[in-house]
Amino acid sequence: QKRLLENYKGRESVTKSGKKIHVFANIGSVSDVAYVLENDAEGIGLFRSEFLYLGRSGLPDENEQFNAYRQVLQMMAGKKVVIRTLDIGADKNVDYLGLGQEDNPAMGYRAIRICLEQPDIFKTQLRALLRAAKYGNLAIMYPMIISVEEVKSIGEIVKEVARELDEEKVPYTIPEQGVMVETPAAVMMSEELAELVDFFSIGTNDLTQYTLAIDRQNSKLDRFYNPHHEAVLRMIQKTIDGAHKHGKWVGICGELGADTALTERFVQMGIDELSVAPSMVLPVRSKICEME
Ligand code: PEP
Ligand code: MG
User: Fold this and answer.
1) Which of 119, 238, 251, 282 is in Cβ range 3.0-4.6 Å of 5 for a Cys bridge?
2) Which part of the chain is the PEP-utilising enzyme C-terminal domain (predicted)?
């Protein structure tokens, strides 16, 4: 099995009839890049930037972030790297932000909501990302989006950051930008959202949680948490159709993207990219290469 999978290294992920899918990998730290390269992923489809913020006593400054992002971009040597902006709150708490206790943290003050509410934190991350974009093939992705208004506000903030960098004569590039589709609201608004962004990445972990109204952390509900639920699959189809209507690419970066029982279905649905744990890159590629 392992030897067979080795044969898929250095190959494209393309079906027998010639449909090419990008198989990327998910990572949560700079050191994970070694596994991405070892498993021959075509890029990084989800880099969870939380690692910079968790397990410490204060916010990481711009240069610390810039150095981490640049390092990953350079190690990936021109391959695409999708970095997700801060997605804390809910299960990932950080004391120094004083977020406090909430009755419904999964539906609470988290991710892009914190960034839009506390733009200084967001702008520091964006400055680091725009500066790092000069060193490789970066894309930025925003989590927990529910509306067109949020995407427009993000656009304004990015413009402001770019203007400030211009004034300071600091070199930067504005990279490709996309949103995570992980709320039913984003699915329902996918056509409108697609007009404003370069790509979508479907976060099936949260999308399943919010579609089925089942806490993804509550193990008592494991038998009800079914990401194969037809409602979830239809959400995925609607998102793909919304993106393609405006010529944008769409991927899956939640756990479901690595479920090889569904790979063929995703390809039939029109998915462009699957971003999976590094160890699942070759199994997913072999599945794609074996299908019509
Ligand atoms: C998801 O929700 O599917 C996702 C990829 O993000 P996270 O698991 O980090 O919430
Ligand atoms: Mg999520």
Assistant:
1) 282
2) 7-290
- State if residue 48 touches ligand 1 by the CB under 6 angstroms criterion: yes
Q: State which of 44, 87, 183 you would mutate to test the pocket of ligand 1, scoring each by most atoms of that ligand within 8 A of its C-beta.
A: 87
Q: Confidence band (pLDDT; 50, 70, 90) for 94?
A: confident
| pLDDT tens column, 103-126 | 888 899 999 999 999 999 999 999
Atom of ligand 1 nearest to the CA of 50: 9
Tens of pLDDT, residues 3-59:
789 999 999 999 999 999 999 999 999 999 999 999 999 999 999 999 999 989 999
Could you tell me if the CB of 206 is within 6 A of ligand 1? yes
Q: How far is the first Cα of the chain from the last one, in angstroms, to the nearest whole number?
A: 21
Q: Can you tell me whether residue 180 is helix, strand or coil?
A: strand
Question: Residue 103 gets which letter from DSSP?
Answer: S
d(CA 118, CA 88): 13
DSSP 8-state symbol, 28: S
Q: Which contiguous run of DSSP H or E holds residue 62? A: helix 62-75
Nearest CA to ligand 1 atom 4: 203
Query: How far is it, in rounded angstroms, from Cα 102 to Cα 285?
Result: 41
Complex-level ipTM: 0.99
Cβ contacts of residue 37 below 8 Å, gap of 6+?
75, 76
Q: Indicate if ligand 1 lies below 6 Å from the C-beta of 254.
A: yes
CA of 135 to the centre of ligand 2 (A): 27
